[in-house]
Amino acid sequence: MNYLTEPTKDLRRKSLHEELTQTLRDLIIHGTLPPGVKIPEKDLCDAYSVSRTPLREALKVLASEGLVVLEPNRGARVSQITQEDLDEVFPVMGALEALAGELACRNITDQEIAEIQALHQQMLGHYRDLDLDSYFTANQKIHEALLAAARNQTLTTHYRSLSARVQRARYVANMTPARWAQAVDEHEEIIKHLLARNGERLAATLRRHLENKLKTVSHHLGRKADFRPAG
Predict the structure, then answer these.
(1) pLDDT, tens digit, 9 for 90 and up, residues 187-225
(2) What domains are there in the chain, each with its CATH number?
(3) Tens digits of per-residue pLDDT, 130-148?
(4) pTM of the predicted protein model
(5) Which of 34, 36, 142, 196 has the greatest number of C-beta atoms within 10 Å?
């Protein structure tokens, strides 16, 4: 074995696989591939100049995240968004976000707080511009930064295994002006408690933030839902 070239090949293959997985994940989260649609494998292979092998590897990852359903001898479909799924996922995410907030307040650096504040200002700018897509992007970066500041790899792994399902539900729901304003107010609270390094209050705000998000998505699906945080 040539030890100088073989690992490079593996790394390139891994990079392609990860990049393709994220691309497909984004297509599903943003609704370009909507719930219930059959995954057009040939079209995707042609569009991204890849073979079926890395595509199917990516679909297996997305199936493990609950975004795709693999159908034997029939290919794959984007999973449906159901109330039952939301009632399972959102309370768990609420608990994980709360824990991330508590740990972040213990471990975060001043530099990290400054970076989150800068992201928050960007998010507010997108809110004023009514740029929902850019708002969501900055919003997600804030939550990811809090997660990183928690310094807990086990928490990160579980969070990311569910995060895409929450993001997709958020994108499909109609964001009313009232809910958007409420979400911004909640993020103002998040920054306030983070600056004070008050883990208990930050955790409570993050739970409530997910609770209100669930209510918005549930209303979009046709009914209101009770939010029962895990733990």
Answers:
(1) 999 999 999 999 999 999 999 999 999 999 998 887 544
(2) 6-78 (1.10.10.10), 83-221 (1.20.120.530)
(3) 999 999 999 999 999 999 9
(4) 0.85
(5) 142
